[in-house]
Structure of Endoglucanase:
Amino acid sequence: MFFLLIRFLSIFCTTCAVFGQLPLPKFPFIPPGASAGARLSSGYPNPQWSTLLGNLLYFYDAQRSGTLASTNRVPWRNNSALNDGKDVNLDLSGGYYDAGDYIKATFPLSSTLMSICWGATDFGKAYDITNQTAYLDDMLRWGLDWLMKAHPSNDTLYVLVGDTKVDDTYWGGDLDIPTPRPSYQINDTHPGTDAAAGASAAFAACSNLYSKRAFDGPYQPPASLNDTTYAEKLLKHAKDLYSFAISAKGGMRTYQKSVSAVADSYMSSSYTDEVTMAALFLSWATKDNSLFQQAEDYYKKFGLAGFNGVFNWDSKTPGIAVLFAQIAQSDSPLGGNMSTWQAEAERYFDRIIANEGPGFLTKHGLLFYNGDSDSASLNPALNAAMLLNRYAQIASTTKRKDAYLSFARSQVDYALGKNSMSVPYIVGSNPNSPSNPHSALASGGNNISDINNSPQEEAYILYGAVVGGPDKYDNFYDIRSDWPETEVALDYNAPMLTLTAMHVLNDTVDPFFTSLKAGAYDKVQPQGLPCDAVFPHSCPTPSLSRGGRIAMAIVITVTGLIILGLLSWYFHVLSQSGDLLKSG
Ligand SMILES: *[C@@H]1O[C@H](CO)[C@@H](O)[C@H](O)[C@H]1NC(C)=O
Ligand SMILES: *[C@@H]1O[C@H](CO)[C@@H](O)[C@H](O)[C@H]1NC(C)=O
Ligand SMILES: *[C@@H]1O[C@H](CO)[C@@H](O)[C@H](O)[C@H]1NC(C)=O
Ligand SMILES: *[C@@H]1O[C@H](CO)[C@@H](O)[C@H](O)[C@H]1NC(C)=O
Ligand SMILES: *[C@@H]1O[C@H](CO)[C@@H](O)[C@H](O)[C@H]1NC(C)=O
Ligand SMILES: *[C@@H]1O[C@H](CO)[C@@H](O)[C@H](O)[C@H]1NC(C)=O
Ligand SMILES: *[C@@H]1O[C@H](CO)[C@@H](O)[C@H](O)[C@H]1NC(C)=O
Ligand SMILES: *[C@@H]1O[C@H](CO)[C@@H](O)[C@H](O)[C@H]1NC(C)=O
């Protein structure tokens, strides 16, 4: 009854958020089709950038698990995995499938939500002026509401639903997802500092967004989400998870040590970045000096300064200096030394701009990190571009600001088709977009031995999905089984969403792909090759999914260790024989 009343009132309340979730537009936004992406547009906000923003959000609708809402925009999706959580007497249905398969994974989901909320805090006006704010709200709540269910008590967080090994043997639609789908938790005796802190950071960042706690300075107003009740709820989860992260009886440790089931696909490299980031986002949410102090202490204690690696779902360190700088330049009681954090952030960014490694530019200009970019190459590049574009707003000099913006722009252009293949790497955005994303949902096939040809044409267009991306030679062959290049994932879309919001605000010029006419991408695939022959280790086996990349990283590491071991043994023997010679 009360529910009906709320529904009834919300019909009249089209702009206010007093009654919780924003009402979705009566005439829903639906992606216009790939051919629309080959037309020039003009005006402000630029219609092509606006459509791209809408498409990128639409992708998340396609990834939904559970009972779909009556407002579901993706006609080919069905209710699915409704019994998730039954094994632990909870309702863990809902949320999002992480990638091209049917796994629900808390760690990358948290990172995605954190990233999107942070972006919508800094550049949220873009969602407002494109009429996408209600979809942003809907997308975030679908994830956050599930994440709250996955955190049923202070010291319990579900980190995985589904069995990655079983899932790797299934290729088919959403009606026959294999069971059982076990639910895996971390808890007081079996903690996971990274997973708990990562979820805490997501809740805190999103609480900031829903209560309009914007950073001062040159940032745009946050998306017009204003739901203080919801924000308080999120903040409570953030606080509880933070205290679970730092004070669990089992101590501080990476979550795969407690839940080995995540080790195959979702292993975390360390917890130090998540804990620091959670403390920092929470300090901003609460204006609590001691939390800010803890964040500074962790940054020192864990030796996070001087890090040169990527920013992604597992590795957040480069974002922390940026967030510190945003807080330092805001007029807040937390303080922080602006020039110190600028120096730290700019040290990291200047290396990227100067091509000093470990990231380097491919021949045609994609920022590439050996190892991290071997699968889903666009992800490190777009994440770097997102941080650069955000940080550029508060850079110490105009010269740096311009250099950062232009580098970020180059990566966005590359992703949107200014590359040697002439492929805009977003499904359904242009006639040259990939048409074979590695997605069991969208493929329409159910023969795991014949992913590429059955069916010939992918059954459904997975609009708005950012695919993995090209190999390090800029090659991309749009082959369904080639998961390193064609898989989709929640976290692949996140940086592109924020970058697109930035462009909506600033760009009257179309995204690059509007200049690409049908046929620009020669889709002839190399005969007899499952994937790029020049870079054979990106050849996937059919059943592998995104999980394989971590397994691969381990294989590479183990091989490296064996080589190192052999070498040290060799030199040890050499030096011993040297000693023998000397003594002899
Ligand atoms: C947003 O909605 C308004 C009012 O319906 C409409 O005039 C405007 O064209 C829309 N803007 C975009 C970018 O869709
Ligand atoms: C949803 O169900 C319909 C049949 O009702 C089916 O044709 C379609 O392929 C299903 N969608 C997916 C993603 O499996
Ligand atoms: C705590 O988590 C571990 C690892 O997931 C699990 O084996 C154990 O049963 C959990 N403890 C409780 C009390 O649920
Ligand atoms: C947010 O909504 C509350 C009512 O729930 C209102 O008092 C407040 O002024 C709004 N804030 C903004 C910034 O719109
Ligand atoms: C949950 O954790 C919070 C700290 O965030 C603490 O204040 C509260 O007492 C805890 N509740 C329970 C039931 O342990
Ligand atoms: C900030 O740190 C710099 C050194 O990095 C120092 O010179 C400066 O005095 C500090 N500023 C404040 C306000 O503490
Ligand atoms: C699946 O594909 C394989 C390889 O093409 C083929 O041999 C097999 O007959 C197919 N299975 C079905 C059920 O069509
Ligand atoms: C938009 O362009 C202006 C002028 O070049 C620049 O100062 C600002 O940083 C840009 N904003 C974004 C979000 O890129």
Observations:
- The two ends are 96 Å apart (CA to CA).
- The chain has one domain: 45-517+528-554.
- Residues 1-18, 530-544, 547-565, 573-584 have pLDDT under 50 and may be disordered.
